[in-house]
Amino acid sequence: MSPADESLKCVAICTVGELFGGVERHVLGMLSALRARGIGPVLILFHNGELADRAREQGLEPIVLPDRNRSILATSRQLADALDRRGIRIVHAHGYKAMVFCAVARRRHRFALVKTEHGLPEPVAGDATGALRSRIYHLLDRGATRLSNATVCYVTSELIGHDGGRYAARRARVIPNGVSAMDRRQLPRPPEYHAGRFNLAVVGRLEPVKALHLAIEALAAPGMPENAHLHVIGTGPCESELRTRSVAVGVAARVHFLGFRRDAHNFIAHCDALLMPSLHEGLPYTLLEAMALGTPVIASRVGGLAETLQDGATGLLIEPGDTLALANAIRKLIADPSLRARLGDAAQRRQRANYSLEALAGGYLDVYRQVLADGG
After folding, report:
1. Which CATH superfamily is domain 184-354 in?
2. Do 4 and 82 contact (CB within 8 A), yes or no?
3. pTM (2 d.p.)
């Protein structure tokens, strides 16, 4: 590290850490990449969960603040004191809660704030109270971003367009997510993938925006081979509804709910195709991991899926909500093994060229240097 970069050693990453998904994969990747460059980042969480455990596996003990905050000022004071003791000059925040507490903490300990926008606010299923709460959180996030004069980074160009220039141009950038190179030969084939089946997989939180009912309905489409099986890796609020749907359309014996799996990479590596029929996405790590592993992907033409995949070259894109198109794409891959291989190989080359962990870390290091040069 050059003398000019010595100040980059004073970096903290702050997020909630309650669940484990794309944001958490992003954080783990950044921790690994920064440590490889001689930067020992501080990790600040509000939950002692899966992300905390995986950080410890990397040899990094996180600071875990209270997850139930009776006083925003008290918790922000704890955050500020922790940052002050460690001489932190830059905090990289993910999510509204991290942004709000960091914005308040800056009143006690000054530091530059960088924020990553991973996706659009998702609709809340259920009562009006939940929707109102989500709206309030979103407004708090915006206010905290402005109050702290944060530099805002977006994982896709589409997201920066949605924000409509809300933040100053010099403080808005696009830095795509990235992953390390992966080798499927190093990952064991899950025993759930039986020989003689065409093994489809969906991986992630079971939420309305993922539109996973489309995958189940596609499996029941006329002409779908009986050996096509769908493996659902993940948990979430839609699980009961999806199980009920698989029974209703007569494919319950071919839909396998496997829950949250720490070995999700094994399922991505060895499935015959990964399905992502989402109604919206930022730039999901599941997609990038599938590309890195050379797994063919069928995805909706939305958000980062459409920005990253080239239809017919590195994946198959369908219109969101189109069950028939999804079924046709599945049948197309079943019928043409050579197409599966071509899509997987081309996607892997594209990931290595454009969506590497090295490019991700390099982009954020440039941002960190700039905000320090600007005085935060």
Report:
1. Glycogen Phosphorylase B; (3.40.50.2000)
2. no
3. 0.91
